[in-house]
Amino acid sequence: MLLGALAVPAFFVISGYTIFFSAERNNWRNFSAARVSRLYPALIVCATCTFLLQPVPQGQLASEYTRMYLDAVLFVPIYFERGMIDASYWSLAYEVRFYLFVAILLALRLFKHVSLVIIVVSLLGTAMSLAPEGVDLSKYFLFPYASFFGIGISIAQIERQGATIPNVLIAALHLGTASYGFLYGYEFIDMLDGVRSPWWVGLGAALFCTGVVIVHLRAKPSAKMARLAIPLGAISYPLYLFHQEIGYELIKYLAPHLGFWASTILAIFVALIAAWLVNIAVEKPFSRPLRKLLSANRKRDHEQSTTDLATEAVRPR
Fold this sequence. Notes:
Strand content: under 5%
Order of helices and strands: HHHHHHHHHHHHH
Structural class: mainly alpha
Number of strands: 0
């Protein structure tokens, strides 16, 4: 369970790193269009497959389950942690919040201060979490994962600007708040084990996630490894959307006949094939046209704005 608890924060570190470079060369509209076109087509298909293939969860009304599905395909409700038709979508909600946070900074022309702003956001979220009535609001400040995104941004800034004293201090602050955030998120596992993890577990987790990403970035893969990594990266998002609920239902159905390990291996194989099919049949054909469509709308808006300005300039006073 510890490895599972480390995987998501490590992914958020990677997300912070990659989004930094994506956002710094885009305006907020281009950035938003790229994110929506990346997430939405596969989400519609994978959420629909989960809705059709997974039985209505025990203790849940069919109408409530249908509403969860509709919230998922409408996409926006995911920001509010609605539409969790697959339990793994909780981390998608944090990704969507992070993307909105970046888009707002781009719109306000404050993205150059993103690392400092995310420290403030992380501290606000942490402060809210300490008050019982503030826990539900703290997640909108990306708590308890804000500083994992911040660590990724700090790695990118150090790579771009060098290990200056401000950059190193900001990275250290992110490590500190990420340590507390990890312990907060890990409380559920602690309750299952009947223990309370010491502070160094949080710091170790933050350092581990940071180290994994740095090692990955510094590695020089062979041509064969690079060719393998590209298709695996391509199917990673639909695999994430598919793996939990459908995988669990498949294992539960097959285990009495094949045994646990054989059914688990078969479920992994089926999930990989399904993710590959979604990438080939949905993401590749639809993601780029959707992005172009949004770009075309922006182009028309720009042309209309230019026309309006020209008209205003020649209009008799």
